[in-house]
From TrEMBL:
InterPro entries xrefs: Lit
Ranges of biased composition (kind: Basic residues): 257-268
Region feature Disordered, mapped onto this chain: 242-268
Taxonomic path: Bacteria, Pseudomonadati, Pseudomonadota, Gammaproteobacteria, Cellvibrionales
Transmembrane stretches, start-end: 121-142, 154-180, 209-230
Annotated protein name in UniProt: DUF1461 domain-containing protein
Keyword hit for Iron: no
Keyword Membrane: yes
Keywords: Membrane, Transmembrane, Transmembrane helix
Length: 268
């Protein structure tokens, strides 16, 4: 049972825990639009938009949009992809003449609908992992399993991250980013956009904004993972039972007393 537990049970528990918590982190960050205003300042997106918006071959006057407009537009995109893509065609900005126009052209809308579909799959996968995590945790509790030592878990966790990071660095983060897009999105759908062809890409300074969001996710996931590990360790820790004091050897004591009485001291 122990080899099976080490090779199958604990990996299933920790993998499902990590994916479940990743979903939680994603959902929480989505509620604040992935801290876009902070990323906007950090990545100097205002200067980036001012440089490339006038060069756009499909849309006019976006360079006139304010910082608040940029934040609103990203928020509306975030809300739409979180809501199965509903509302993507309704995202608009104001032109110089006061009229409003659609923020994105058709290829951008199709791409973001694909993104929304992937997010839907992520939510379904995360929900399954939440259920699997709770089931395995309940089994561990009722079977009185003890968690592996924190040292072993951290070594495995850090080792996996290190190997993954080295692979990404060796291949190149941009190459990995593009490869994932090729694997995930339909072949006939455009997913790469030059800044001059996409206000969506210009607004996000892609892929820079995704690196910023990834850092936020990793930091939040690390916090939640550590807290949940402490909670599991507390739940699965076996209570210490105080051993009763050793019983006195009454037979030996009585024999010793009898011998003492059998040889009285002089004068008695």
């Amino acid at each position: 049972m122990k080899p099976l537990k080490n090779m199958l049970f604990w990996p299933v528990l920790f993998i499902s825990q990590t994916i479940a918590l990743a979903l939680l982190c994603w959902h929480l960050l989505a509620q604040v639009h992935f801290a876009y205003p902070a990323g906007y300042q950090l990545l100097d997106l205002q200067s980036h938009i001012a440089e490339f918006a006038p060069l756009n071959r499909h849309k006019d006057d976006f360079e006139l949009a304010t910082k608040e407009d940029h934040w609103r537009l990203f928020g509306e995109i975030s809300d739409a992809v979180q809501n199965h893509g509903e509302g993507l065609r309704d995202i608009r900005y104001r032109l110089a003449n006061g009229e409003t126009t659609a923020f994105m052209h058709e290829a951008e809308i199709i791409h973001l609908q694909d993104v929304a579909n992937v997010i839907d799959i992520f939510y379904m996968t995360g929900a399954v992992c939440w259920l699997l995590w709770l089931i395995t945790l309940a089994i561990a509790y009722w079977q009185r399993f003890s968690l592996p030592s924190p040292r072993k878990i951290l070594l495995g966790f850090i080792g996996s991250l290190l190997v993954l990071s080295l692979i990404i660095i060796a291949i190149g983060p941009t190459s990995v980013f593009y490869w994932l897009h090729v694997q995930i999105f339909p072949d006939e759908h455009q997913w790469f956009f030059y800044y001059q062809d996409s206000l969506m890409t210009t607004l996000m300074k892609a892929p820079d904004i995704f690196a910023f969001i990834c850092v936020l996710l990793v930091l939040l996931l690390t916090l939640f993972w550590g807290a949940s590990f402490w909670g599991m360790k507390t739940l699965l820790s076996k209570p210490e039972i105080n051993a009763p004091p050793p019983a006195k050897n009454t037979r030996a004591t009585n024999t010793k007393a009898a011998k003492k009485n059998a040889h009285p001291k002089p004068g008695q």
